[in-house]
UniProtKB/TrEMBL annotation:
InterPro entries: LarE, NAD/GMP_synthase, Ni-pincer_cofactor_biosynth, Rossmann-like_a/b/a_fold
GO molecular function: sulfurtransferase activity
NAD/GMP synthase domain mapped to chain residues: 30-89
GO biological-process terms attached to the record: purine nucleotide metabolic process
Active site per the UniProt annotation: 186 (nucleophile and sulfur donor)
Highest taxon listed in the record's lineage: Bacteria
Record protein name field: ATP-utilizing enzyme of the PP-loop superfamily
One Pfam assignment: NAD_synthase
PANTHER family cross-referenced by the UniProt entry: EXSB FAMILY PROTEIN, NAD_GMP SYNTHASE DOMAIN-CONTAINING PROTEIN
Organism annotation: Frigoriglobus tundricola
Length: 296
């Protein structure tokens, strides 16, 4: 199978990592890639399709925690790549431990996802599950990696030695449209630890962030705190604009109409994973990721 066309050169180091990635996946008898449509899982899906063809399938979860725009993007990307694609309903919202949102929510979400996909493997005709985790994920709080370990999920990007920068560079080389896409974690990740997750709240966040993007933002977050308080994060360079009279008034009015009682603008600006600061230390220790074995 041929690679996608490319419009830029590739460094020897990245070419070697690409080849390792294709070799890691090519050694698998077949793989189901947990495919959100984000940059990491898109690169794994593309590599899996190049290495395995019809023995690769992308599996996307659908629940109240997934923004409709992200689901549409996943469909379009799978079609562009040419990989088989299956969308599955997950029922994490029926799990009281997930709804409780005590800091381990992602563990319960990924457990639900991998359990659901695991049951589907015979029907999909593949025996292995893979994620889009890269080496940079090892330095962050990632309860989902603990769930992955319990379900024997492989992490091809980690095994091939990919950092986030490597992933973006390879995506650009392969001309994948998501090569510079901002991270888009699930809507439930916007709930501060201790704030119960509900479909109504995730929809409120989705609508609020859709409004912010309509004002021209690519990266933004609406963090949901106790008391129906929205903490809005925009890039630091945009804070003055959003604090100015007309925009501030429109922002506050729109979010209140969506159901938020208080609207604040975070003066530190956009920070990916800022709610991890509220996760109890014991959970961070419990879910500290283990370094993978990098395969030559």
């Amino acid at each position: 199978m041929n690679e996608l066309g490319h419009a830029n050169e590739i460094s020897p180091d990245l070419a070697a990592k690409r080849d390792r990635l294709l070799a890691v996946l090519g050694d698998m008898p077949g793989v189901a890639v947990a495919f959100s449509g984000g940059i990491d899982s898109t690169v794994v899906a593309q590599a899996a399709f190049l290495a395995l063809g019809s023995r690769a399938v992308a599996v996307t979860a659908d629940s109240a925690s997934v923004a409709r725009a992200e689901l549409d993007d996943a469909r379009a990307l799978a079609q562009l790549i040419g990989i088989r694609h299956r969308i599955v309903r997950t029922d994490e919202f029926r799990n009281p431990a997930y709804l409780k949102n005590d800091g381990a929510r992602c563990y319960h979400c990924k457990t639900e996802l991998y359990t659901t996909v695991e049951r589907l493997l015979p029907d999909l005709g593949v025996p292995v599950m893979a994620s889009g985790a890269n080496l940079d994920d090892l330095g962050d709080y990632r309860p989902g990696l603990a769930a992955a370990a319990e379900h024997a999920v492989r992490h091809p990007l980690q095994e091939a030695g990919f950092t986030k920068a490597d992933v973006r560079a390879l995506a650009r080389y392969w001309q994948l449209p998501t090569w510079d896409k901002p991270a888009a974690p699930c809507l439930s990740s916007r709930m501060a630890p201790g704030v119960a997750v509900t479909p109504e709240r995730t929809k409120r966040v989705e609508d609020a962030e859709t409004f912010l993007r309509s004002l021209g933002l690519r990266e933004c977050r609406v963090r949901y705190h106790e008391g129906d308080l929205a903490r809005v994060e925009v890039p630091a360079s945009e804070i003055a604009k959003f604090a100015a009279g007309p925009v501030r008034t429109e922002l506050a009015g729109t979010l209140r109409r969506l159901g938020f009682k208080f609207v604040t603008l975070d003066l530190d600006g956009f920070r990916s994973g800022s709610l991890n600061d509220l996760v109890p230390l014991e959970l961070k220790v419990q879910f500290k990721p283990a370094a993978p074995e990098t395969r030559a």
